[in-house]
Fold these 4 entries.
Entry 1:
Amino acid sequence: MIRISTIFIAICMVLIAASLGLMVYALAGLTVPESAIVALAALTFLILYNAVSMRLRDRTDVGGQIADLSRGTADLARQVAEFGRRMGAIEARLAAIDSTGHDRVQTVATEISELGSLVRQLAVSVAAHDDLLAHATGTIVAAPAPTAYAADLTASETVAAATPTIAAKPIDAPAPAANITNAQLLVAVKNAVEANRIDLFLQPMVTLPQRKVRFYEAVARLRDDQDQVLAAGDFIGAAEAAGLMGQIDHMVMLRCVQVLRRLMVRSKDVGVFCNIAGATLSDPSAFRQCLDFLEANRALAPSLVLEFKQSVFRHLGPIESEHLAALQRLGYGFSIDNVSDLRFDPRELADRGVKFIKVPAALLLDQQQASAADIHAADLSDLLGRFGIDLVAERIEGERAVVDLLDYDVRFGQGFLFAPPRPLRPEGAATPAMEQPVSSAAAAVDAPARKEDKVGVKIEPEAIRATGNAALVSRVRPSPPSAAPAERRADAKGH
């Protein structure tokens, strides 16, 4: 579009040329054609002069712009150089920090390895000593099962890795439930349920690497008529066949709630994992009873985690899915246990309310399993964390496994390395009947006991620690079969 100034300049040049032609015609006496030629020549000159002047002016402007651009480019180059210098300094600092952190980790790993070596040497020495005593006396001794639950029931305390007790392996000693028939086992389970002989065992879950107690897993143990402890792997099959798992799970839920209330008096950050069988989830009548109880205690939903086996989530039917959705609507979170492989769909599990996944440490550290799985074990914790799911490494029994799991960014650990499942006094966390209200149950928990821990949960009285010759005498003295091997097997199977 032609600018107004250009039009004005053109009109002025035409007027000047015409005026020059008229002056020549009037003063010089030239004819009209000659005057017109003079006027055209003057107009042409003016046009050429204007074009040349505009071109020179444009060149001057372009030169100024180029100079400005050059100065801007120089400033930008200086800024880029300064930025590069600062980035180099930051990278040097990060490299120094990484080197220092790596050195510290290496130092800690070396110390942990040395500690593990000392523990192994001590274990070998104790085992050799036991063999010598057994050979001298002709008696195979077994270490008594732990009867005291350590006073560590608070989320702010650190679990101490105590030296494990080495038990001599009994010769031809069957498991408590191995020498009875299925019918006898069924009768024993029914009698235990009717007599309320269901004990609650607690095993801590600790943070890594701090090893501070954050959660407790509650596992059920039954006592038969001879007061022999039946682990979960021994009685679950018979209980499911008899349709008693719903009643057992209800009893366990009640005691978990009682324990959780006592724990939360000391710390609000503690939580309890409560196992629920797949048979209870698929039984409408049994589940309704549990659902009513959980709805009455929905205020504890953020701290009470309901745990199911991986196989339960793999074979969810319409009824099971509906029941899980009902629990999720109440605010309860879920945990997956008894994991056999690393094939997960984190998005689907998160949509169903899963908050934790427990994977055996041996499975996480198994290179063959990692290569065959869809998700590499080293990436599992980060992937699950994107969907709000925490990874828990369970069945940890060695310090070396802890060091390797830290490289996998595992936040929680559970296993015999930190503490085995230990019993809670039945009268401290149970009621005679399931129909007893929660308030009455809490009153039962508040009843006096011989010993209480820091948060008020009753525990078994500590065994008298023998030293010197008395300890040697007690070790060669025949003792009842220990429940520790069966407990370890039950812990491996889960409830």
Note: Confidence is low (pLDDT under 50) at residues 137-177, 426-487.
Entry 2:
Amino acid sequence: MNLAIWDIESSSAATDWASIIEIGGVLVDQNFKEIDRFNFRCRLPEGEIPQAMALIVNRTSIKQLTQGNLSHYQMLGEVEKIFNKWKGSIFLGWSNLNFDDELIRKEFFKGIRYPYITNASPNKRHDGINIARAAYAVDSSVLETEINEKNNPVFKLESLSRMQGLDSSDAHSALTDATLTAKILSIIKKRQPSTWDMFLRTASRADAETIFKKEEIITLNEYFYGKSRLYLCAPLHPKHCIHQIYKWGQAVDLRIDIEPILNMSINDLKLEMKKTPKFLRTIRSNKAPIILDAEYGMKAEPYNAMDLSLIKKRAKLVRDNEKFSQNILIALREIAEEKEQSKSQEDIYAEESIYTKFTSNKDTALFPAWHAASWQDKLKLLDKFDDKRLVGFGKKIIYQEAPEVLPKDILKSIQKEIAKRILSEKHEKWWTVSTCFTEIDTLRDKYSNENNQEKKQCYKNHYGGYSSRSRIGYIFDMCHQLDREGAGFLCNKEC
């Protein structure tokens, strides 16, 4: 399969509330020969306050946010075309599973587009940083790395690229980061050809499940506390090895003496799961887990000091004890249900509800017709959606692109909602005028106190033109001159 390597730059780090402001990618074949590439920038949607630090990191100016050629809606449409053109590839980036993939899903969800475009069959997905960490865990000579103050290797893309002799001066631009990711992965494939195929074999949930249902002993790679580790594990009984709610695989760490645990009650198992070292390890099959052959884990500490017959005995006990596996799943289900109950008490906004209720096939089938219609017809077609969240998203899209077609009552309602959100003095989930002011002031003081000339200059480039007294002008710029009612409300409150 081809590799679709992509990256985004966003207005904030909060995936429920951020907007993609730049996206780029390269399509390469199995030998990393480039087939295609793209890069898009867009204007920030009106009424959204970006995170000040995010703009410094991705070097985005206010001018770029407000005067780009593409609107946010237009850019998402172009991305959808490209990704459909690249269909049948493994989509991956650098730390994309926890950020880029989440953000594109939520952006497509709010944009009335199919959210799971990067991993819906025939596409698969993976993560470049997980591959790099696993490659390093297998053989630390595969990549040159910086070592941080905690004596751990650094896997930040900019740092890792520089250590391989690659030009990373333009890092944190989407296309550059995608290109650097491709170059790092090509180095890994060249130096670890035997493990490369193993890294990629879990790029779909079905492929990952096939492996841990079939194998008696596997090596699982995990990364936490700054280190990439190899765990020798035995998957639970094949009929009872997948979490009933999250659909993740479950395996027992073979360094643990399993016999005292086998006949525990469900309540005792729940208590046992809280202890360290953990006896149970989770295989997130929908997030391209790194699953290697058993031989890799047997060479790693502490398993290399264990008797092979003991390892095999423990694995057989886990594999053959169906009741134990059943009890593990019951305990995990109860723990998950308790967590879900506590979540249900929280206020959930439509923007953060992608996983609480999935869009029906009927509504999804309407997406292409909705985008193909005129703006006037788009408004009419909203009546055909059963999902009220989509109706709300559709009205906001029309407001951004063609506000003149909206009835006055709907227009005013959206304007008031924008003004209410960005002017809130409460601790909100999204960025507000108040939090933006505070962040800008904090950054100025921080960089001044540190006497960091580079960061001070970067801050000046972004925010130096706005004094404390004129910060409202800055906000106006970021909000694209919020609609008349909203801007009036803003001015009356702040000026």
Note: Residues 465-474, 476-495 have pLDDT under 50 and may be disordered.
Entry 3:
Amino acid sequence: MTPLKKLAGQTAIYGLPSIVGRLLNYLLVPLHTGVFLPERFGVITEMYAYVAFLVVILTYGMETAYFRFQSKEGANHQRVFSTALVSLILSTCVFWVVTTVFSQNIAEGINYPDNSEFVVWFAFIVGMDAISSIPMARLRVEGKAVRFALINFANILVNIGLNLFWLSYCLPHFEAGNSNWLINMLYTPEIGVGYVFIANLLASGVKFLLLSPVVFKIRFAVDRSLLKEMLIYGSPLLISSIAIIVNESADKILLKWLLLDELGTDAATKEVGIYGACYKLSIIISLFIQAFRYAAEPFFFSQEKEKNSKEVYATIMNYFVLVCATIFLGVMLYLDVLKHFLGNEAYWEGLHIVPILLFANIFLGIFYNLSVWYKLSGKTQYGAIIASLGALITLVLNLILIPQIGYTGSAWATLVCYASMVIISYHLGQKHFPISYSLKKVIGYLSLALIAYSIANQIKVENEILKYVIHTFILISFIGVAFVLEKPKKAIIS
């Protein structure tokens, strides 16, 4: 089996369950936006922005360090696994104690003084997910794709099921005056958006329990010298990951705080809600990127010693960008259909930021592809530097643009940030770990997608059916052109 076919297979094995699972989870978007007005959905968006930061901090690069050290020749796999896992368990327990003790202070600090329970719930969500990251990584290393997928599915189905129970069953029956013993026992309307968080907490608990056999079948021990090496390797990745999360999530936090004085709490949170909901429409590209990352990280390390590894990496980039460009075009050509996933028309005013966010996510995916150079060369400090520069761009642009144009400024800041990171990473990579990427194809596919989208926008057709026939023809034509351009590469993947 050729390397590219192997990667495609691994992406399918690990990615398809993730994609299906996340698509199922994506069905919660119309539920949440239908039940909650933007100002309440903004609470959900903001809280999960904080979660993104905490997950990165609590894992502190240990997952990638685990991949790196278990792949070394002569590595004691059990020792590497145990060292990584015990380290995360101990740090998470400290985190749980601190957040529980100071939950009220933290709640007041984030402007939710009446909801200190949110802090406790999310502390346990984040903690369990952090500990679970190493056992899940081990399943990927051992090729236990079915088990990996089933655990993820269980987590997602529990989350969806509880959301549907509380928000689709209990809430409408309660509001209609049709309460029964089950609703009276398990539903309290005052909790509101809190049920979204409780569902997540219980789902994370189920995932944690399902992984317990993987955790407890090993002897708990820490190799201090190995732990030191893993922390040294992972610390730049932690900085890099924090910076990336700043790029991904800081806008959702800054939106509220920068608009708070001008608009008031509810109106500012509404802006966050609209932005967060429209961000969800870029989820399809995010799903593909996530699926790709599940397979690519161990794959890149496994291909390191192959003679044609750099050629493989370059070819992967071509196909990755091609798929992303196709997804971008598909979403934008059918945006009038996809917008109905946002359950309330109150969110539609933010649809103009969707193409900006889609392109931003494409650049983020390209950056993940480019990151192979500093991970394989051991120069992880460069990843931290690049991501930190991106974070600085994000913060500066958000501070400048949000007061001027609100969440539209956040979207543009995200795009400029990721594009800048790609440019910086590419130039540094060519100096330290040169890979002959085909810039003409990368730029060409993205440009062609933009041109196709522009053409579709210029064609004004009243008849909806005819409109989508034309859009479908444009999409197929784009795929056909790409197929012709990539035909010479057939020998590499066959």
Note: The chain has one domain: 3-493.
Entry 4:
Amino acid sequence: MKHINFRELAITCCMVLLSNTVFAQNFSQSVSDSSLKAEQINPLRVNLNQSGSAYFQMTLLNQTWLRYTQNNPGSMRMNQPESETFDIGLRRTRIQFMGFLSARTFIYFQFGQNNFNSLYNSNTPALPYTVSNRKLAAFFHDALCEYKLSKNNALKIGAGLTIMNGLSRFSQPSISSIATMDLPIFLQYSVDQIDEFDRRLALYARGQWGPLDYRFYVSNPFPVTSNGNAPPAAITYTSQFVNPNLFIDKTGRPLSNSPGIGNQYGGFLSYNVFDSETHTTPYMTGTYLGNKKVCNFSAGWVYQKNAMMRLNRLSETLVDTVFEPMLQLGLETFLDVPIQKTKGTAMHVFAGYYATNYGKNYLRFNGIMNPANALIPANYPVSYLSGSAYGNAYPMFGTGEVWYFQWAYVLPKSLLGEPHGQLMPYASTQYARYEGLQGARMWVWNTGMHWLIKGHQAKISLDYQNRPTYYYTDQQIRYDARKGCWVLQYQLFI
């Protein structure tokens, strides 16, 4: 798309905003309607006993994006060069089913899809484009059973397909309550490589002992050959996830040096200074909007033996295959507190440091709901960038060090008038030093505003992201011009 009709874009955005103003007004009127009675049963919840302690409920969530993107240099969209793109997509569409069948038994399912835009399931740099099916989008994100071994939350044991994770609270996030518009995806460290959209088949224990919140898990990672993309076709001097197909002979028998696929282990410990955090599901809240007073300090880790592979040159003529562990370490602090309850103001602050080890020089470009799907071959050598630096992608994951910070503030109710919701400005930044960038910096920042029409249940968000681009010349990675992206999101959560 060589030209964006900004007049049409502005009209579209205004129509969305106007429709939601009407929604907010109608909602406030319906709530104040005297015909609504407090004793009415939530139509999305079924009580299984008279007290309501045993229940089963359903939730629905949809995040719609309207987006303008300055594409990375050399980007193509279905064989056409595009320097900028306007697109529409569904960032997340989810259905949750959960409930307590008894005081100690909890069941949880989540079904849905992610990153559904016009390129869904055809977003590949390979030519010619293969036959695909855009209808095969939804899948089970979670399916778990959990048993509470104590009367309180001291110890819970669960198993199944779950997001239970180590490293960070954003490795297991509640996507309906994000403080910014989207998550720091780099903390979902192996997303769609050896997991199912950050989920794994796992056995876990979690609980709360006084001020201590803990969770530990062991999981069976998926083979990288099952993620829907072409697996590594050869072992290189740069670390990559193990491809089991590279360790079989011509008859299909495993070689003696095959590492197999080992279990993954992880944990997350958090010390709460004030209130304890919500503990119904394994998901961790993004922001409580002043409904809780939370301050905690956390540490997390993830370890998987022989998860990565690379070549190691022993001499001019001798090369060996090396297997390396994946080890991720994180330290975090989280503050989410009310400021003036009468005015409805609240503040959110998060800061984290992460040591990310995927093996020597590992680097992975990723673009959220990427609006492009290829690079002009003459512009960027596929040998280095793996053909993935198109559209809005940047080096999100890598071996090295990462610092992340986010801030948000809920403004007073009186600013818009209480029936019309509240405004919540925010900002975030990710700074990384990755081995694979050869000393080039990686800095991404976002800023924006939420219109909290009805808290997290109905909100409109306007976000701007600024990211780096790179080029490769004379066997050196060099820093190129920065690019921007505007997103208007409408979230509904019931």
Note: The radius of gyration is 24 Å.
